[in-house]
Design goal:
The protein has helices spanning about 5, 15-35, 45-55, 60-65, 75-85, 90-115, 125-130, 135-140, 140-170, 170-185, 195-205, 215-245, 255-270, 295-315, 315-335, 340-345, 360-370, 395-420, 425-440, 465-470; strands spanning about 280-285, 285-290, 445, 480, 480-485, 485-490, 495-500, 505, 515, 520-525, 535-545, 545-555, 555-565, 565-575, 580-585, 590-600, 600-605. It has about 600 residues and is α+β, with helices and mostly antiparallel strands. A hairpin with a 2-residue loop joins strand 12 and strand 13 (about 555-565).
C-alpha cells in the first residue's frame, strides 16, 4: 500500500479513494511546478514573442504570422496577454504556465478515467506524467511552454473524445474531437503529429474485426469521426505552406544514428525512470540531458525488460500499446532528423523540450499495456488482464520501489535542471541591471547589439536595446547618434561610451583648439584600413553655442550633428568605412574646436 493510499479513509468506495489520491497527486505536482517555474525568468525567444505582440497587436494577421517557422496562434494569443503588462511580467507569464499545467494534469486524469475507469492502476501513468522530467524544458522555458503544454492538453482531450465516440457514437464527440485537433495544430506544427499515435490507437484498440480487414473496418466504423479532423489538418497545412518558410536551412545532413542513440538512450529511456539525473548547460540557462553512460545503459535495459514483462503478461494489448509508442518515437525522431538535427546535430536528441509531446503518449501507452479499455467495440485480443492478486508479493515490492525511485529521481532531475533558471543567468541579470542603472541615470544609450547569451545575433534587430528593453517604455532612450552617449556594458549596466581600437587622429592645427570648424569645410583624415565595416565615430569638441554641423564621410552625407555649447563628445554610427571626414557649421555664429576624432567599435568606459 502506497503512503498516499494509506492516508485515504478505508471506508470510502474505491472510486472515491482513487479520485482523491489523483487530485492529491495533481496538487502536489502543481506545488512543485510552482517552485520550478516562479523563480525562473524570460529567455531569448520569450523577448521576441513579447516584442512581436506589442508591435503587431491581436489581429488575425498577427495570430497567423509565423514565429521562426512556427505557425502557432495559441501561443501568439497568450504572449499578447503577457505583453499588456508593464515591463517583463514574469509573474503573469509563469501564472499562465501553471494554469496550463493544471489543465494538462486534469486532462490526463480525465483521459485515464474515461479509458480505464477510476481504478488504482491509472495512478501509474498519471504519476509518470506529473513526475517525469521528460519534456521538462517545455514547462520552464516560456517560449517552449506556449507550444508544448496546449499540445499536451489537446492530445489528452482528443483521446478522451475518441473513446467517448467509440462508446456512444454521438456527433457531439466528433465535434469535440475536432476542437481538440484544432487546439493541437493551432499550438504549433508538431500538433499534426498527434494524428499518428491517435490513429494507431483507433486502429488497434477501438476497431473490431479481423486484422486482415482492419483498414476497411477503420473507415467503415470511424469515417464520421475522421472527416472534421481531416479538414482541419488540410486547412492548417495549406495556411502553413503558404505563410511559413522552411524551418531549417542547411546543406548538411543530421547524424542519424547518433541522434537516434541520444534520443532513445540518452533522453527518453532515462526520463521514463526519473532521469537523466545530470544535465549539461549549453547556453545558460538551457541544458541538455547528460546522464552517465552506465545509467543510460541501466535505464534502457530496465525499460526494455519492463516492456518484455508486459508483453509476456498480456501479449495482445501490450504489443499493440508498444506499437503506438514506437510510432510516436519514430515521428519524433524523423522530425529531428529533418528539422533541428540539421542545425545542432546529434545534440538535438538530448534536448528535453523535443520530448514534450512524447510524454503524454508514453503515459497513454503504459495505461493501455496494463489496463483494459472500457469500450465494447475493442478488438477480440483484449482479454481481461491478470488481477492484482495474481502479481506476486515480491513483484509488488519491486513495482512499489520502482515507483518511489522514479518519483525521487524526477524530483532530483527537475531540481538540477532548473537550478540555472533560478540563478541570475546572463539574460536575466542583463535586463535587470539595465533597468536599475537607467532608473539611476536616464542618459540615452547607444543602440548596439547585446551579448549573444542575452539575445542571439541571428535575431537582429531584436538584439538591440531599443527592441529588447522596449517594454519599459520611456525609461529606455536609445540612439545611433548624439552627444555624450552611454552604452550598456556586457553586464547590462549603463556606462559612458568611448570609441576605441580603430582609426584615431589628434588635431593640433591651432594650439589650445585643435581644428577650428566654422562655416567653411574642415577636413579630417583617418586611416580607413583600421576601421570596422560600419564604424562608430566619436568627435571631441567644444562649441561656442548650440547649433548644427553637417558631417560628410568621403563625400557622402552622414547626418547633421546637433552640437551643444561647451565641451562634449559626439557619437554617430556611420554607414561604412571612410578616409576623410568633413565638418561644416550650418548655424551662423556657431564654431567648434575639435581635438580628437576616432572611428571604430564603441564600448563602455571601464
Amino acid at each position: 500500500m502506497t503512503p498516499l493510499r494509506a492516508l485515504i479513509p478505508a471506508d470510502l468506495p474505491t472510486a472515491h479513494r482513487v479520485r482523491l489520491t489523483a487530485y492529491t497527486m495533481i496538487v502536489v505536482h502543481l506545488a512543485f511546478k510552482a517552485w520550478v517555474v516562479l523563480p525562473a525568468w524570460f529567455y531569448s525567444d520569450d523577448f521576441r514573442f513579447i516584442e512581436d505582440a506589442r508591435t503587431r497587436g491581436l489581429t488575425i494577421d498577427a495570430l497567423f504570422t509565423p514565429h521562426d517557422s512556427q505557425l502557432m496562434p495559441v501561443g501568439i494569443a497568450i504572449s499578447w496577454v503577457v505583453a499588456q503588462a508593464d515591463g517583463y511580467s514574469w509573474l503573469l507569464a509563469a501564472g499562465i504556465t501553471l494554469v496550463l499545467q493544471a489543465v494538462a494534469a486534469l486532462s490526463c486524469l480525465l483521459m485515464l478515467r474515461t479509458l480505464f475507469g477510476l481504478r488504482w492502476g491509472i495512478l501509474v501513468p498519471l504519476g509518470l506524467f506529473v513526475a517525469s522530467p521528460m519534456g521538462l524544458e517545455a514547462g520552464v522555458w516560456w517560449a517552449a511552454a506556449l507550444n508544448a503544454i496546449p499540445m499536451q492538453i489537446a492530445f489528452f482531450l482528443l483521446v478522451t473524445y475518441v473513446v467517448l465516440w467509440a462508446r456512444e457514437r454521438r456527433a457531439r464527440w466528433v465535434l469535440a474531437a475536432a476542437g481538440a485537433i484544432a487546439l493541437g495544430v493551432l499550438s504549433g506544427p508538431r500538433g499534426l503529429a498527434m494524428a499518428v499515435p491517435v490513429t494507431c490507437f483507433i486502429a488497434l484498440f477501438l476497431t473490431h474485426g479481423p486484422w486482415w480487414r482492419r483498414p476497411y473496418d477503420i473507415v467503415r466504423q470511424h469515417l464520421l469521426l475522421a472527416v472534421p479532423p481531416l479538414l482541419i489538418f488540410v486547412g492548417y497545412l495549406v495556411v502553413y505552406l503558404r505563410s511559413t518558410p522552411a524551418p531549417v536551412e542547411s546543406s548538411g545532413e543530421a547524424p542519424a544514428l547518433a541522434l537516434l542513440r541520444n534520443l532513445l538512450m540518452g533522453s527518453w529511456a532515462p526520463s521514463v525512470l526519473g532521469g537523466p539525473w545530470r544535465w549539461n548547460v549549453i547556453a545558460d540557462p538551457l541544458a541538455t540531458a547528460a546522464a552517465p553512460f552506465a545509467l543510460e545503459l541501466i535505464a534502457s535495459v530496465l525499460v526494455v525488460a519492463a516492456a518484455a514483462w508486459l508483453v509476456r503478461r498480456n501479449p495482445g494489448p501490450a504489443g499493440a500499446a508498444l506499437a503506438i509508442l514506437l510510432a510516436q518515437l519514430t515521428v519524433t525522431y524523423l522530425a529531428l532528423v529533418f528539422g533541428r538535427g540539421l542545425q545542432v546535430g546529434a545534440l538535438a536528441g538530448l534536448i528535453s523540450r523535443y520530448l514534450a509531446d512524447t510524454l503524454p503518449v508514453t503515459a497513454l501507452v503504459i495505461g493501455l499495456a496494463t489496463m483494459p479499455v472500457l469500450v465494447d467495440r475493442s478488438p477480440a485480443f483484449r482479454r481481461p488482464l491478470p488481477a492484482p492478486a495474481a502479481i506476486g508479493a515480491r513483484a509488488r515490492v519491486v513495482l512499489t520501489a520502482t515507483a518511489v525511485l522514479v518519483v525521487v529521481g524526477g524530483v532530483v532531475s527537475s531540481a538540477r535542471y532548473v537550478a540555472p533558471w533560478h540563478a541570475d543567468f546572463v539574460a536575466r541579470s542583463y535586463v535587470q541591471n539595465a533597468v536599475s542603472s537607467l532608473e539611476e541615470d536616464p542618459t540615452p544609450i547607444a543602440d548596439v547589439e547585446v551579448p549573444a547569451l542575452v539575445q542571439l545575433p541571428l535575431h537582429y534587430p531584436s538584439n538591440l536595446p531599443s527592441h529588447l528593453l522596449a517594454p519599459y517604455g520611456d525609461l529606455v532612450q536609445t540612439a545611433q547618434e548624439g552627444n555624450d552617449l552611454h552604452i550598456l556594458d556586457d553586464s547590462g549596466r549603463s556606462r559612458p561610451a568611448v570609441v576605441g581600437s580603430g582609426a584615431e587622429t589628434h588635431l593640433d592645427t591651432i594650439p589650445g583648439c585643435g581644428l577650428r570648424v566654422g562655416s567653411t569645410e574642415a577636413i579630417i583624415s583617418l586611416e580607413r584600413d583600421s576601421m570596422d565595416a560600419f564604424p562608430w565615430t566619436s568627435i571631441n569638441y567644444a562649441a561656442s553655442a548650440d547649433g548644427i554641423v553637417r558631417i560628410t564621410a568621403d563625400g557622402r552625407t552622414v547626418r547633421d550633428m546637433h552640437v551643444a555649447a561647451g565641451a562634449h563628445t559626439y557619437f554617430t554610427l556611420t554607414d561604412g568605412a571612410y578616409s576623410t571626414l568633413t565638418l561644416r557649421s550650418l548655424t551662423p555664429g556657431t564654431e567648434l574646436c575639435v581635438d580628437i576624432v576616432r572611428a571604430g567599435p564603441i564600448r563602455g568606459v571601464s
